[in-house]
Amino acid sequence: MNQTPIIAIRGAGDLATGIAMRLYRAGLRRIIMLETGHPLAVRRTVAFSEAVYHGEVQVEGVSAVFTENMEEAAAAWDKDAIAILCDPCLLKLDEIKPEILIDAIIAKKNLGTEIHMAPLVIGLGPGFTAGENVHKVIETKRGHHMSRVIHEGAAEPNTGIPGSVKGFTVERVYWAENGGVFNTTFDIGDEISEGETLGDVDGTPVVAKISGVIRGLLRNGTPVRKRTKLGDIDPRATKTYCGEVSDKALSIGGGVLEAVCAHIFSKD
C-alpha cells in the first residue's frame, strides 16, 4: 500500500488538476481533492472536478474517482486513482487528517483555509499570507515570479486582467453579465470566429471578441450568477491543447511540488 503523505487539495478545477498531476507523477499518490456538489470549471476536459458529474474521469491518462467517504478514497488510492470528495467547507478534515493541505480554489481571496489545519498548509495566489494564514504561498500571476514559493508575505494582488495569450487578455475570457441559465450550441474544441455568438444567458448574447478554438466552456443549460466565468477562447487555435493540462497549471504545480518536497525531506 502507498504510504506517502495524505495530501488534500481544495478545488479540482484545471489549475488544481495540474497541481495534482505534478504531485501524482512525482509519486505522491494519496491525493484527495475537495470540491463542491456543482463544480463550474470551464476547462472541463482537463479538470478532475468532472468526476462529480461522471463518477470517474481521466486527464492525460491519470484517473480521478468520485468518492463518498474516506473508505472509498482509500480504495481509489489502492487503484492508483485520485479521490474526489464533496467537502467545500472542510467539514471532513478531521477524518481526512491530511499531512498537507493545498488551497487551489483560486478565488483571489481566502475562503476559510487556516494555518493550523495541517502540518503544511499552502495557498495559491492572492488572499494568502505566508506565516499568517498559511505556511507557504505560491505566486500565480504570470511573469518572472510565477510559481515561486513565497516563505514570508503575500502573492501579487489580483489585477482582474487575464494573462496575455498572443496579445489578447480580457478579449479571450467571458463572464456572465447577469444571472440566469447559460445556453450554447458550441462545445470545447470547436472553432469560433470573431462576432459569432458563443451563447447566451437568459437571452443576453455572449459574442466572441476574437477568433480561435474554444478551450473552456460551461455545459449547455448551466445556471449561473452574474460574473460567473462562462468560457474562454484560445487565439492560438491549437485543438490538442484542449485535452492537455495548461503550461500555467503545470508551472504552478512545480512550485507546489517544491514546497511539498521541502516539507517532507526536512522532517526527522
Index terms:
268 residues; alpha/beta; nine-stranded mixed β-sheet; globular
Overall description:
The structure is a single chain. With 268 residues, the protein is of the alpha/beta class. The protein has five helices and 19 strands. The strands form four sheets. It has a nine-stranded mixed beta sheet with strand order 3-4-5-2-1-6-7-9-10, with helices on both faces. The chain has a four-stranded antiparallel beta sheet with strand order 12-19-17-14, with no helix packed on it. Strand 3 and strand 4 form a beta hairpin.
Nutshell version of this structure?
This protein is α/β, with parallel strands linked by helices and 268 residues long.
Helix and strand layout, with pairings?
Layout: E1 7-10, H1 14-25, E2 31-35, H2 51-54, E3 56-59, E4 62-67, H3 70-78, E5 82-86, H4 93-96, E6 100-103, E7 120-124, E8 129-130, E9 136-138, E10 149-150, E11 153-154, E12 173-175, E13 180-183, E14 191-192, E15 197-201, E16 204-207, E17 212-217, E18 222-224, E19 229-234, H5 247-266
Parallel strand pairs: 1-2, 1-6, 2-5, 4-5, 6-7, 7-9
Antiparallel strand pairs: 3-4, 8-11, 9-10, 12-19, 13-15, 13-18, 14-17, 15-16, 17-19
